[in-house]
């Protein structure tokens, strides 16, 4: 199968769940404030909650609050994995596919069957023990 996709390690639909890491690097969630400064958090066991006008971010080793009005952007930064690598490790496992806004696209018996049916777009793939975000072109 020749579906072109880039696999990006990422969280599932909720940021409150522990997030897996692909590859040797560590997945990070980056917070950029309106003054241009950035703060990075290791995404493993990351929890976020809003207390009044403050976003409180906590992982296993640190915690920090961000004034919601001063947050400009937050995004994941981490390793990427080629689709062939992902298929080699997970092609025979069932996959549940979601759009990035949380709509469930379907349940598939294998990752390969899911990738063969997806139109161009960004999706979250949930498999036993692993969650990935993919871009299908």
Task: Give the helix/strand layout.
Elements (H helix, E strand, L loop, with lengths): L4 E5 L18 E6 L4 E5 L4 E5 L2 E5 L4 E5 L3 E7 L2 E3 H8 L4 E5 L4 E5 L2 H5 L5 E7 L2 E7 L1
Antiparallel strand pairs: 1-8, 1-12, 2-3, 2-7, 4-5, 5-6, 9-10, 9-11, 11-12
Mean of pLDDT: 76
Structural class: mainly beta
Major pleated sheet? 6 strands, antiparallel
Extract low-pLDDT stretches: 1-24
Radius of gyration over all CA atoms, rounded: 16 Å
Helix content: under 10%
| Helix-strand sequence | EEEEEEEEHEEHEE
Percentage of residues in strands: over 45%
Biggest sheet strand line-up: 8-1-12-11-9-10
Q: How does the overall form come out from the CA principal axes?
A: elongated
Could you give the distance between the termini? 14 Å
Oligomeric state of the chains present here: single chain
Count of individual helical segments: 2
- The total strand number stands at 12
Describe what this molecule looks like in 3D.
This protein is mostly beta strands. The protein is 9% helix and 47% strand. The protein has two helices and twelve strands, in the order ββββββββαββαββ. The longest helix has 8 residues, at 83-90. The chain is elongated, with a radius of gyration of 16 Å.
Q: Can I get a quick summary?
A:
By secondary structure, the protein is mostly beta strands. The chain has helices spanning 83-90, 111-115; strands spanning 5-9, 28-33, 38-42, 47-51, 54-58, 63-67, 71-77, 80-82, 95-99, 104-108, 121-127, 130-136.
């Amino acid at each position: 199968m020749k579906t072109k996709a880039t696999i990006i390690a990422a969280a599932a639909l909720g940021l409150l769940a522990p997030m897996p890491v692909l590859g040797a690097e560590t997945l990070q969630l980056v917070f950029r404030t309106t003054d241009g400064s950035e703060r990075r958090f290791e995404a493993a066991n990351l929890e976020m909650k809003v207390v009044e006008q403050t976003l409180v971010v906590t992982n296993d080793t640190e915690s920090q609050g961000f004034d919601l009005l001063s947050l400009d952007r937050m995004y994941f930064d981490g390793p990427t994995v080629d689709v062939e690598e992902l298929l080699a490790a997970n092609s025979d496992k069932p996959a549940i596919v979601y759009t990035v806004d949380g709509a469930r696209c379907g349940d598939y018996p294998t990752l390969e069957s899911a990738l063969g049916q997806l139109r161009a777009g960004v999706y979250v793939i949930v498999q036993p023990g692993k969650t990935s975000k993919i871009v299908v072109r």
